[in-house]
Design a protein that fits this description.
161 residues; alpha+beta; Immunoglobulin-like; four-stranded antiparallel β-sheet; 30% helix; 34% strand
């Protein structure tokens, strides 16, 4: 006796399987593309090309900074208070610096907070950044005194409360 209910794999079945497979792939790729484009704009620095042209000048600037012999210590305190201590090679504080900069997330530029430091005592400077969420932050500062420039770039971790 032959089985009349036997099913055969036909062209229609193949079309449904391939359509489902490629439809799922297109949908998933579309979702991933949307999130990739909407979360990070790809710009690390606003004027990277011009900064690249000044590469040798930045190297010379780094050599001048190393020759100063200055050292710094950065502390992230309560309520977004950022404290910086700058001292010379003999450990003496460096007073009367004009320090400006910003603090932001390492991978996104939309959370950047500008900072302006004031000198609390000779060689000690403080600023406040409101609304810092827990996590990783990058602090970028320029400390100027007449024609001297000292750049600071530190990665900070604000622990959850």
């Amino acid at each position: 006796m032959t089985d009349i209910t036997a099913r055969h794999f036909t062209g229609r079945h193949l079309l449904i399987v391939l359509g489902g497979f490629f439809g799922t792939m297109l949908a998933v790729n579309g979702v991933f593309t949307y999130f990739a484009v909407s979360t990070f704009n790809g710009v690390d620095r606003p004027d990277a090309y011009r900064e690249g042209l000044q590469y040798n000048a930045r190297i010379d600037e780094g050599r001048r900074q190393s020759a100063l012999g200055w050292v710094h210590r950065v502390a992230l305190g309560e309520a977004g208070r950022i404290e910086v201590r700058i001292s010379d090679g003999q450990g003496q504080p460096v007073p009367q610096l004009a320090i400006t900069g910003d603090i932001g997330r390492p991978a996104a530029d939309r959370f950047t907070h500008p900072l302006s430091f004031s000198e609390t005592s000779p060689g000690f400077y403080a600023a406040t950044a409101e609304g810092l969420a827990p996590g990783s932050w990058v602090l970028s500062l320029d400390a100027r005194k007449r024609d001297l420039l000292y750049r600071i770039k530190e990665r900070l971790w604000l622990k959850p409360e």
